[in-house]
Every structure is written in structure tokens, then in C-alpha cells.
Amino acid sequence: MEELVYRLKMSGIGIAVVGDQIKLDIPEGKDVSALVSEVRHHKQALLLYVRKSQPDPLSRTPAPRLVEKKEHYEVFHQQKKEYLRYLILGDHSFNSNFILSSDHPDLPTLHRALRTLFFRHESLRTTFLRKDGQLRQVIHGIDTVTLNVEYLDLSAEGNKQELADRLLEQSAGRRFDFEKELLSDIKLVRYLPDAYYLLFTTHHAICDAFSSAILKREIGLLYQAYLQGDDDPLPPLTFQYKDYAFWANRCLKGRYGREAQTFYKGTIGRSLAEEVAVAGGVQQWSSGYRQRLREELIRVQGPTGPARFPEAFGAVVNLLPEKGGFYKTYIEGDVIGRLKRTTLEKGATFFSVLLTAFALLLSRETKVRTARISVPHTTRLFEEFENIVGWLTSEIIVCIPVDPSMHLDRMLEEVAAIIQAASDHCIYPHEKILDDMDIPLEVMAPALLNYIGDPDAGMPRFQPYHTDNGSGHFNLHCKVTEYSDGMTVEMNYNVHVYARSRV
Predict the structure, then answer these.
(1) What's the whole-number mean pLDDT along residues 440-453?
(2) By the 8 A CB rule, do 72 and 129 touch?
(3) How many helices, marked H, and strands, marked E, lie in the chain?
(4) What is the 3-state secondary structure (H, E, C) of 188-200?
(5) Strand-pair category, 14-18 with 195-203
(6) 53/422 Cα distance (integer angstroms)
(7) What would the DSSP string read from start to end of 74-117?
(8) Which of 94, 225, 417, 448 could link 204 by a cystine bridge, Cβ 3.0 to 4.6 Å?
(9) What CA–CA distance (Å, rounded) separates 290 from 317?
(10) Residues 316, 293: contact at Cβ < 8 Å?
(11) How far is CA 443 from CA 273, 285, 291, in A?
(12) Considering Cα of 76, then 81, then 87, then 92, what sign does the dihedral take?
């Protein structure tokens, strides 16, 4: 296989593995049919050889290890940016919540299950402080934590659904004090005489969507075990978020961080240079990331703002997002069937098909040759991180060249390879890319596509609707949730970029 790879390279043919496929980059106009036939004949052996020769991105990272006990600990990027937003803006809510239903819960058992949960996950017992110019996280002992569960009875109210909706809205907008209180809120609501639900709200600084699923599952397991008189059924956790933060910071300060910086400067820089060339050498943005953030800090904090919060550069973006609109709709029936058939026929993933379609849409709407899209990506790269509660999600930036004449099969292969290449750098935050290149967010990645798969659940029924209370943080922020019988599409858009009629 070494000799075959050598002949491919000497012929100017690039070779890479994408999933279970060999991808060849063949120079235009060159007849290499004999070599291609040989590659097909030795496909499996070649796959194994190339995989073994490709560097493992995790080999560039230090091994996870436990942090020694301290009074306070370093924060990672995701915690840092949310704490800074709290310090700079005063009020800052960015919450997530989930609901657990029950017919008639045993309150002492439920309280015991929740207390075990808080003992198990340090993130639920975390507050923050700024000491000697450094942002730090403080983990409180379970004996010092007062676990409050607010009880609300709506069962006798005539407008209970209106009150329940208002409660959910208030929980989503709740302002937490990062320095003086835990960043979670728990309410037990009696909706009907024999129907209760637990509303569990956390600030995003200590919990991502995957973590919410962990909490929801573990509450159920603990409650059922204690109700039956059994002991805690959950295996002990070895690693906590502080250990992940220490590991991730070491990654960014070492080889991994240097290579990620080089990768993004190269891929984003090349696509920007192409756009500038097409525009006749004229740059299309008037100010960079640092200047815009400096102006926002002055607007919020006064003339001394940039000097008071130097940590903000490379950590936060768009403190004062532009006005946005919001649209929600759904897709079902034959359209979903065709999408899934395409996925199976092409040997692709549902997400790569969605991302390809999204890139084509952006290119058509914005007339760009390369669609730069932000994509959420997990950073739970080691088994030790799987059950940690915290924010272990980042965004990768994919730069997808769009050629309308390219065959769909080839474009799907290209998109899969681009996702794989960018995912090798998933720990590197997009705010650092903005600071490295000093470009605004709408230039680096005008759009974000977030895909959530829930194929075991049925799609919620609603009427498509539009509201002017959206977010203009990205020019276009699309969230797609797949269900067993369809998918919902939620679109936030910047009203200064897109007209309501075009979304």
C-alpha cells in the first residue's frame, strides 16, 4: 500500500478517508484511470493504511487528569464569556430548562433525589468570582448548599395554561447572580389534582443541551430507586467540569491551539480573499471585531470599559446584538421522505444533507462562492467527559465552496470532508478566531445551523408563526429538530440583512 500511495502522490493525486470512503483529488485533465482502478481493487487495504497514517487529533492533546483541590479553579472559555456578559451588562439571562412529569410525586423522595444530583455534579454547586484580575469558579460543598424547590399549585386556576406558559417564560428569562447564588432554579408545579411537573432551569454557563438530558435521566433513575428503597444506582463520576476546564485550557495553550489557529486562518482567510477579489479588491466590512467590541464596551461601561474588561477580547462578541426577527415552521410528509431517501442513497448523514442544502441556499441568497457556517459541535472527546454536566459544546466553522454545476454526490463528499477537518479543531472557540483575524461575526460566519435529532418523539403540533422578537446575533440562525414524523425549523434573522418576506 505504501507504494500505491507513493504513485498517487507522484501523479499529483490527493488521497483522504471520509467515513468509509476513499476520496481522491484528481488534477483536471489528467488520465489516471489505471490508478483509480487499482485503488478500487485495493480499497479496504488502502482504507486501513491511510487511517493508520493519518494523525489522531486527540494525540495532539494532553491526557485528561484530575485537578488538585483548591479554594477556586480556572474557568474555561464558555464559562468565561457568560460570566463576563454578567459583569459587563449587569443583567444577563441565557437559560435552558427541561420538564419532568409525574402523577403524584413523593416529595421527600424527590428532594432526596435532587440532593444526590447536586452532590454528584459540581457544576450545580458552582459560583464565580473575579480575583486579582482573574475569572475563577468556586465549587461549594453540599453541606453549604441550601436546595430550594418552589412549590406552585395551579390546579384550581381557571387560566392554568396561561399561568404555566408565563412561568416557563419567566424561568427562561430569570436573571442569576453569578457571584452570590447557584445557577439553577427548580419548581414543582401542580397542574391538575393528579398531574405534576418539575421545571428545572439552569444558566447555560453550567449546562448544555446534552447535560440537560443527563440531569433529566438521572433524576428519574434516582427517584425510582429511592422510591423502591434502593441505594443510589448511578456509577460514581471520576471527572468534573473543573477537570475538563483544566484540560481544555491546556489544549488551547499548546500544540492543539496553535494548529487550530493556523487551520482557521488558512481556511477562512482563503475564502475571504476570494470574496475580496470578486468584489474588485474592495473589503466589504468597515470595522473589525476588536473595534466593534471596544465601541460596545464604551456604550455599556463608559470610556473606561475596554480597560476594565480586557479579558472580553477573544471571549465575547456582540454584547449588544442587532434587532432580529423569528420564524417557526415545520416540514413533514413527502419532503422528509425524500430527504431521508437521499441520505440513504448517498451513504451520507442527515446532517450533512441539511448542511449541503443550507450552504446552497446561502450561496443563492448572498451570491457568495463559499458559504461560511457556524455549526455546534460536542467537545466530549474522551469517555471520561461523557457524563459531566457543564458546557461542553463549541462551534466549528465550515467553509463550503458552492459550485452549482457540481454533482450532488461529489458535493456531499466535499461537505463530509470539510466537517471532519473542522471537527478536529472543535475545542478552539469561534471568539478566538474573531480576535485572531480581527473580523466581525457576520464576516467570519454569517449563518449558524444547529441540528437536533429526536427521532423517537413525535413532532409537536403548532401553527407556523412569525414574531419580531428574534435575535440578530448571526445574520441567520437556523435550528432544525428532527422527529419521527417530520422536523421543525426555527429561524432567527437579522432584520438589517434579511427582509421578513425573504425568510
Answers:
(1) 94
(2) yes
(3) 16, 16
(4) EEEEECCEEEEEE
(5) unpaired
(6) 19
(7) EPPHHHHHHHHHHHHHS----EEEEEEEESS--HHHHHHHHHHH
(8) 94
(9) 9
(10) yes
(11) 12, 8, 14
(12) negative
| 87 has pLDDT over 70 | yes
The conformation of residue 182, written as its DSSP 8-state character, comes to -
Residue 32 and residue 13 in contact, taking contact as beta carbons nearer than 8 Å: yes
* Measured distance between the N- and C-terminal CA atoms of the chain, rounded to whole angstroms: 51
Three cell numbers written together for 483: 422527529
Q: Could you tell me which residues come within 8 angstroms of residue 62 by beta carbon, excluding any fewer than 6 positions away?
A: 247, 250, 251, 254
Q: Which three cell numbers stand for residue 269?
A: 482567510
Mean pLDDT of 230-239: 96
Residue 423: φ, ψ to 5°: -65, -20
> In this structure, are residues 277 and 104 in contact, taking their beta carbons and an 8 Å threshold?
no
CA angle 323, 324, 326 (to 5 degrees): 160
Which residues, at least 6 apart from 294, have a Cβ–Cβ distance to it below 8 Å? 305, 306
Q: How far is CA 310 from the centre of its chain?
A: 25
- Grid cell listed for 59: 494525540
Contact 480, 336 (CB under 8 A): no
Burial of 3 (C-beta count, 10 Å sphere; 0-12/13-18/19+): exposed
Residue 471 grid cell = 435575535
The amino acid occupying position 365 is: E
Amino acid at 76: F
Round to whole Å and give the CA distance between 78 and 390: 9
Residues 197, 189: contact at Cβ < 8 Å? Answer: yes
Can you say whether the dihedral through the CA atoms of 296, 300, 304, 307 is positive or negative? negative
Let me know if 307 is exposed, middle or buried by CB neighbors in 10 A (0-12, 13-18, 19+). exposed
Q: Which three cell numbers stand for residue 237?
A: 463520576
Query: Looking at the predicted structure, is the pLDDT value of residue 48 above 70?
Result: no
Find out whether 324 and 472 touch, Cβ atoms under 8 Å.
Answer: yes
172 contact partners, CB below 8 Å, separation of at least 6: 93, 95, 97, 201
Q: How confident is the model at residue 56 (pLDDT cuts 50, 70, 90)?
A: low
Give me the residues paired with residue 400 across strands.
371
**Which residues sit opposite 448 in a β-bridge?**
374, 477
Percent of the chain with pLDDT over 70: 95
pLDDT at 192: 95
8 Å CB contact between 187 and 148: no
Cα–Cα distance measured from residue 442 to residue 51, given in angstroms and rounded to the nearest whole number? 36
Q: What is the pLDDT of residues 318-372, one digit of tens each?
A: 899 889 999 999 998 778 788 878 888 877 788 888 999 999 999 988 888 899 9
